C-alpha cells in the first residue's frame, strides 16, 4: 500500500502489550509478542487517517487519540527496556515533502519521545 502509516509505537523487551494498554488506558490497533525478535513486545496505536492524507493530518490524529495519556506515555518512555516514538512510514515511488507542525513536536516533547520518519520506495 502506498502512502503514510503513522502510529504511536511502543517497542519493548520488558513490558507486555497488555501491560502497555493498562498503563496508557488505550486500546492498540496492533500488537505483537514474539520472544525471538529484537523487540519481543510491540504495541501500536495508529492514525485513523487514510494513507493518502498529509503527514501533518496523521500526526494530529495520533496526538488526538493519545491526548489523555501524555503523562502515562512519558512514564512508559522512561522505563528501562522500552522505546516509545511516533513512527511515520511513507511507501511510494516519489517521496513527499515533510512538514512536522509545531503541535506534533509539542506532543512528542510533552511525552518525552521522538518522531521517526522513514521514506521507503
Q: Helix content range of the residues, please?
A: 25-40%
CA radius of gyration is 14 Å
Order of helices and strands: EHEEHHEHE
Structural category:
alpha+beta
Report the count of strand segments.
5
Largest beta-sheet characterization: 5 strands, mixed
Number of domains: 1
Low-confidence stretches: none
- Work out the strand percent: 25-35%
Shape: globular
Helical stretch tally: 4
- How would you state the average pLDDT, rounded? 95
What is the distance, rounded to the nearest whole angstrom, between the alpha carbons of the first and last residues? 11 Å
Strand order of the largest sheet: 2-3-1-4-5
Structural commentary:
- The protein has one domain (3-120).
- The chain is 31% helix and 31% strand.
- The chain contains four helices and five strands; from the N terminus they run βαββααβαβ.
- The chain has helices spanning 17-24, 55-66, 70-77, 102-111, and strands at 3-12, 30-33, 41-46, 82-91, 114-120.
- It has a five-stranded mixed β-sheet with strand order 2-3-1-4-5.
- A hairpin with a 7-residue loop joins strand 2 and strand 3 (41-46).
- The chain is globular.
Could you give a quick summary of the protein structure above?
The chain has 121 residues and is an alpha+beta fold.
Amino acid at each position: 500500500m502506498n502512502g503514510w502509516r503513522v502510529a504511536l509505537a511502543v517497542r519493548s523487551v520488558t513490558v507486555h502489550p497488555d501491560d502497555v494498554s493498562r498503563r496508557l488506558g488505550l486500546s492498540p490497533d496492533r500488537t505483537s509478542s514474539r520472544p525471538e525478535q529484537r523487540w519481543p513486545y510491540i504495541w501500536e496505536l495508529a492514525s485513523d487517517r487514510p494513507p493518502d492524507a498529509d503527514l501533518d493530518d496523521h500526526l494530529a490524529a495520533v496526538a488526538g487519540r493519545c491526548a489523555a495519556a501524555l503523562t502515562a506515555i512519558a512514564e512508559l518512555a522512561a522505563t528501562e527496556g522500552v522505546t516509545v516514538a511516533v513512527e511515520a512510514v511513507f511507501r511510494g515511488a516519489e517521496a513527499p515533502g515533510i512538514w512536522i507542525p509545531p503541535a506534533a513536536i509539542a506532543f512528542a516533547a510533552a511525552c518525552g519521545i521522538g518522531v521517526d520518519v522513514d521514506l521507503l520506495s
